[in-house]
Amino acid sequence: MNAVHDETGYTITRLRAVTARLVPVRWHWAEQNEARIAQEWRTARARNPHLFDGEVLLAHGLGEGPAPGEALDLAFMPVRYSAFRAFKAAGFPDGFAVNAFPAIAPRDQAGRFLLGRMGAHTDNPGALYFAAGTPDPGDVAHDGGIDLTMAALRELAEEAGLAPDPGALDPHWQMLRRGGHLALIRECALSLTAGETARRGEGARGAMAMPELAGLRVIGEVDALTDPALPDFMRAYLAHAFAGTLP
Q1: Which of 121, 157, 155 is nearest to 135 (CA)?
Q2: Cβ(61)–Cβ(75) below 8 Å
Q3: Domain CATH number, residue 148
Q4: Domain of 165, in residue numbers
Q5: How many whole angstroms separate alpha carbon 18 and alpha carbon 77?
Q6: CA 49, 86, 12, 167: dihedral to nearest 10 degrees?
Q7: Which of 31, 71, 102, 208 could form a disulfide with 152 if both were Cys (CB 3.0 to 4.6 A apart)?
Q8: How far is the C-alpha of 83 from the C-alpha of 247, rounded, in Å?
Q9: Phi and psi angles of residue 84, each rounded to the nearest 5 degrees, phi first
Q10: CA 71 to the chain's CA centroid
Q11: Residue 158: its pLDDT value, please?
């Protein structure tokens, strides 16, 4: 099936595979905006002292990306979180760097999805989405390869205390892209209902010293997708998943 163009502005493309590797390069936008990055970071830290300016990985040089049904090969560069944050706030303006991140979409046999609500101490408090995260240097293997599936499963374990069988993952990815924002989603078939999985996850989350999530939420096709806590890419994915119109 060809790519889907959603009303939110995202193009949804089914990919047969995604590979990634570390390819450090100079990022001119960050070099040219050092003062802006520093000022925005000071402001952000004043509002939320829990923020940490560690390294994350941004994709680069992607261009138009692959055709539907093809493989996606991503190159990533390490950047400071403060620079990534300012770049995202500016709307991904340089056409070079891309916020590419993997996510696992847990779904039960009744078609319901399990989402997490971000905690008040995070940089996206209250937001509702699948366990996801921008890759970081800890996801890079000795040969420079980056396993985005394992990175997404790590996020699911760290955020929701869940460790699904990798064999339950859909073999294909759904790529949702709007400009410099690129979500890579793999669906995971739950062996339990989404509600039962959520209860197990809440038990694990309650044992965490500082859980990243404020809670877990189940969403099914009868639920409205108008909650402003749902980012556009989540509304696009869920709407097409429930309608059976994903590529």
Answers
A1: 155
A2: yes
A3: 3.90.79.10
A4: 4-243
A5: 17
A6: -40
A7: 102
A8: 34
A9: -60, -45
A10: 19
A11: 87
Tens of pLDDT, residue by residue over 49-71, are 999 999 999 999 998 888 888 99
Which run of H or E residues covers position 12? strand 11-15
The interaxial angle of helices 34-47 and 81-89, nearest 10 deg, is 100
CB neighbours of residue 89 within 10 Å: 12
Asked if residue 151 lies in contact with residue 184, where contact means CB atoms within 8 angstroms, the answer is no
Q: Quick: pLDDT tens for 139-187.
A: 999 999 999 999 999 988 888 888 888 889 999 999 999 999 999 999 9
Task: Give me the amino acid identity at 59.
Answer: A
Number of domains in the chain: 1
Strand partners, 176: 12, 183
* pLDDT tens profile 96-120: 999 999 999 999 999 999 999 999 8
Please provide the size of the chain in residues.
247
Across 177-205, b (16+ Cβ under 10 Å) vs e yields bbebbbbbbbbbebeeebeebbeebeeeb
Copy the structure tokens of residue 190.
């739950």
The pLDDT score that the predictor gives to residue 24 is 97
Confidence (pTM): 0.93
